[in-house]
């Protein structure tokens, strides 16, 4: 009996690829054509399963291709706004993701961006590297301390809670949050806000932990309601914030700084953000530890194996 064929769009950690190869027939994951539109269209008709990344668009037209063979899309990532889940369900295609295993790594990076933004790390490193640092100054490049300041968490799910816990227990920050549904209690002090606007009004730093692909939570109007001198951190999805409005607020000085790991049209980053010294920009590395990326890959393989074994899926995604 032939083994199921799995199309992998990107190179994965070595241990993950080895486990895949033990059970499945796979393509060459490092092939640069594997994640192109043409490569995905061919894979939908030639493979039994697809293992894409969060930047691979699996849309309705791809799922409706005549002769489609793919039965399952095992997404490498917790977010699935790159997949039309409703269209997949209508086509009888199962969608899975990789939750939980990237919580700590992403929360760690969120806090790193909070520190980088409030202590002006990218700006001052650039000054040092170009030779413009002329010695210690008591009033040079003053940032904002975190102790006693309010961190506003927009989206109090697993990653939002992990970030809040680090900020509250590790840095002495007050925590405010907004979540669409009731959550808690927590093992740290936290105050719920009844609207996004209320959260923005009290937050010295706002950290975004909401899914993308839906209505934009941080619109231009809401950015205008943030506290003057506040900071924004985004490790969620780029499309949850109006990047143009954010760049304007940062350039004018109304917002003091930002730390961004995600962008609306990756890998493209708006020129307006690239030009700003008060923004730390990272290339979507929230889950980029060897341990986490390996765990993500292993969970994707678990989902594939469960499907083809007829067993319960560890992390199936359904449309709402």
UniProtKB/TrEMBL annotation:
Task: Name the PROSITE patterns for this protein.
Answer: D_2_HYDROXYACID_DH_3 (PS00671)
D-isomer specific 2-hydroxyacid dehydrogenase NAD-binding domain mapped to chain residues: 111-286
Answer whether the UniProt record assigns the keyword Oxidoreductase to this protein.
Answer: yes
InterPro entries (UniProt xref): D-isomer_2-hydroxyacid_DH, D-isomer_2_OHA_DH_cat_dom, D-isomer_DH_CS, D-isomer_DH_NAD-bd, NAD(P)-bd_dom_sf
The family database entries (CDD domains) matched by this protein are listed as:
GDH
Q: Does the keyword Oxidoreductase apply?
A: yes
Query: What UniProt keywords are attached to this protein's entry?
Result: NAD, Oxidoreductase
Gene Ontology MF terms in the entry: glyoxylate reductase (NADPH) activity; hydroxypyruvate reductase [NAD(P)H] activity; NAD binding
Ranges where the D-isomer specific 2-hydroxyacid dehydrogenase catalytic domain occurs: 18-317
Q: Please provide one cellular component term from the Gene Ontology annotations of this protein.
A: cytosol
Homology family? Belongs to the D-isomer specific 2-hydroxyacid dehydrogenase family.
Its name, as the record gives it, is Lactate dehydrogenase-like 2-hydroxyacid dehydrogenase
Q: Which organism is it from?
A: Amaricoccus macauensis
